[in-house]
Amino acid sequence: MTEQPRLAEQNAAVALPEPFIRWFGEKGWSPRAHQIELLAKAQAGQSVLLIAPTGAGKTLAGFLPSLTELANRPKRKPGQARRGIHTLYISPLKALAVDIERNLGKPVEEIGLPVTIETRTGDTPAHKRQRQKLVPPDILLTTPEQLALLIAAGDAKRFFEDLRYVVLDELHSLVTSKRGHLLALGLARLRSFVPGLQTIGLSATVAEPDELRRWLVSQNPPKGSTGHDMAELIVVTGGAKPEISILDSEERVPWAGHSARYATPEIYREIKRHKTTLLFVNTRSQAELLFQELWRVNEDTLPIALHHGSLDVAQRRRVEKAMGENALRAIVATSTLDLGIDWGDVDLVVHVGAPKGASRLAQRIGRANHRMDEPSKAILIPANRFEVLECRAALDANYLGAQDTPPLIDGGLDVLAQHVLGCACGAPFRADDLFEEVRTAAPYVSLDRPTFDRVIDFVATGGYALKNYERYARIRLNKDGFWRVSNPRVAQQYRLNVGTIIEVPALNVRYIKAGGKGAASRGGRVLGKIEEAFLETLTHGDTFMFAGKVLRFEGIRENECFVSNAPGSDAKVPYYGGGKFPLSTYLAEQVRIMLDDSQRWKKLPEQVADWLRFQADKSVLPKRDDLLIETFPRGNRHYLVAYPFEGRLAHQTLGMLLTRRLDRAGARPLGFVATDYALAIWSLGDMGAMFKARKPSLGALFDQDMLGDDLEAWLADSWLLKRTFRNCALISGLIEKRHPGQEKSGRQVTVSTDLIYDVLRSHEPDHILLQATRADAATGLLDVSRLADMLSRIQGRIVHKALEQISPLAVPIMLEIGKMPVHGEADETLLMDAATLVEEAMGPGMSVE
Amino acid sequence: MKFSLARISLIAEADLVGIAGERAVCDPRGVLYFPDLRLLAVSDLHLEKGSSLARRGTLIPPYDTGATLLRLQAVISDYQPSIVISLGDSFHDGGGAQRMHASFRERLEALISGRQWFWVTGNHDPEAPADLPGETVRELAIGSLLFRHEPSKQRVEGEIAGHLHPCARIVQQGRSVRRRCFAGDGGRMIMPAFGAYTGSLNVLDRAYAGLFRLDTLMAYMLGAQRIFAISGSMLRPG
Hints:
Chain A is α/β, with parallel strands linked by helices. Chain A has 33 helices and 27 strands. The N and C termini of chain A lie far apart (about 85 Å). Chain B has helices at about 5-10, 50-55, 65-80, 95-100, 100-110, and strands at about 15-20, 20-25, 30-35, 40, 85, 115-120, 135, 140, 145-150, 160, 165-170, 175-185, 190, 200, 220, 225-230. In chain B, the strands form 2 sheets. In chain B, strands 8, 9, 10, 11, 12, 13, 14, 15 and 16 form a 9-stranded mixed beta sheet that branches. Chain B has a 7-stranded mixed beta sheet with strand order 1-2-3-4-5-6-7, with no helix packed on it.
């Protein structure tokens, strides 16, 4: 499983056809050991997982088995039937498929192979798709959604009958989402069409390679087959060690915030020193802010561009093209550029803000310098003091090669429902057969039969206890034991709604035409899309940053938000949606270890080390496995600050639950804020005194039993669950994303799923979709499992420090108060405030006669 | 049906809203009650909306009719009105009354019996509901009030209508709150939709243009326990 050059040389002679050897020779290259090893294993009939850093020739390795086999294939004789698809390549990004078509086309042409390669994505025109059905290419490059569509077609079995290989690129990123669940089910279907099918997974380094190895092959092979339950593993280690440094700023590192504005001049200096700099940030608003700041100091008007997923597609393509042509000196990007697209000669990666995970950092740094043997160069820019600690921990972890990719989770039932309907759209199925097939997919290996049957029932009639919809069934069980689609319209609707990507309701951001007023002034250029939830908080005249500009909000009309250029460059409304990625468990632990070990503070910038020493002086620093709780009065409030370091989502859940408990204990809590590192709750009652009197004790307050009834009670009405339910309802096909001839607006969908949720919860709380929703929420937005681990870790290890005033460590989170939305059951309070205003203005009573 | 004095005495003078000289309670559950007339108005029940969508392949939970009737039962038992007006779109489509599950039909008949019940026709249900007691009317005048489904284009003093499913939105402390609401300007009142699956439309939408005197427009937003009266100038579109 490691590199064995000598063996590889021997293999080369056996496995690699002559034209390939000649081609390598002409290029002055020799095939890499892992490329040959992969080829040998594939030729021996095995599925393979290749884990390699970027720049290791992964793509060519993945396609070698296909290309050599196609090279040796006898020519089709006239009159002989057309051959179907030989290799299916699946990537998470459309852009990646297009990129591969280009990169693979070159060697194929140079070697002179008679191989056709085509892409099929959402952008492929209908006539080309039609033609692909009649005259399939040898290699089809596509996405998980397109695979689902191909499987749901009536001719699927015939279309795939010649399939030999499925190559799955960026597998590490595919498997962690519901897209991965759908893809795993699609793969299971393909395996039942073509029993000897082999898979080749290409992945960046992950924490648990065995999970991916199982994912690639059948977990329930038919009796008598020789299939293994894990794919073969090839790991390419090495590559030059990256040169990573943390910016040791001459400026003051701020206590809180996420802008890293203080470091702009220093970042600009680095951009000037390098050819092309890639600047990564965690959120779109950070990207907007950094872009603005860089242009503010861009005296040399260097070509600096902005790239994130909300920008208009045309704009993004222009940036990508410019980058490929090396016409840019710097590009500010969010995760849209995370995956393995190979563009231009990036010689520096700057990571602004904390990386949140060691693996994520490693993958992002891999973007720089796509040649494996040369070190990548990266600079981390912490935006605040806690991020300095986090960057240090991530940096140490990267050198140690630590991995903290998230563990895989069980497949979603909503995804399964979508797949079941897709299968029925393709061909009638028997429940027994489909159940066996589904369980060959790793995410569904522990699915039980009763649950599967409930999913079928859900697909057929909604799966309700009240049997009212039999006559409207979407699929029906016929006398022959096969489930069939009840009418063609069902298949049509399915095709419009396939996939698991749910977009947040968003509006087009469009310029108002200059000088105009009223309806005539609408219809300027579209800048991109922005979430409805953010726009709702704006008033006419507010200014905000988007698409690298400061814009003035003019109003909303139907699905469009109208804006104009704002004079000046200060946006009134900051927009920080919070980090999308919570701090990984591994990094959190590393940060705690560092806090506990004053020897390691020497590696930290002096001002940060001083901050920790002050903390030791005024309060204490939490021990590695302890939970530090500080209480102190401030103004006319009492504060509790806890430092669990478990990530924002888990802290948010903890905050909700603790506030409920403190309320019952009579502390009269008013609100809380959560960050990745800490949680602050404020109240009218003196919590410090209450804990001292053990009324309640901190042990009781933080008891694990909060995850029982309290969680259940809070969850029932929580927007978090409603939002999760909406996703499940859309993915499972309960509600349609798209309807023939019309696109529902986000608003209409949101309203109706909330209402459906309320009705279903009160009438059938055990419905399978609510079950799926709760399971999703527990792993997703609530991070319950992480909270549970933490509560059990800290039992008997809570350290309470009752202080007279705020501690140095508490400053960052205290600064967040007022900047972040305050959580709690505040809606009614807000209404009350507004109504009170009216009463004050108009006198008591509502009479308006 | 006995008149429940205890209930009525719970209505504080301050909670009453004036409409063309009549006094009404805007109940946070979304119904309008006129104590002097012992009249309860409810609008846009949209019964059998679930099965209506199911016919077209969207199999949303079939519990909406049950849920809506349970809530209606609760307000009727609280106020014990002698007159009930269902202000149109009582059923989501013309076939709704026939599709209704037998148990729901019985529950509805029990609510109707013993009081005067009016079905005002709406755009979703232009005909009388099949085989249900009660009187079907296009509009209904009682005292100075006029009950109809769609609000008239011209100003009609004392008009109580539904149809538009009003909601209102305010922004406080950077946060947005949207609720169903009664919308009134002292002369006319548009009621919120009562049905479990009914969506809503902001009172500042174009559809309401010209219906209210803007200087006296109030949105009575539905809270969990009470109504929040918000003046028109504080409302936000969207």
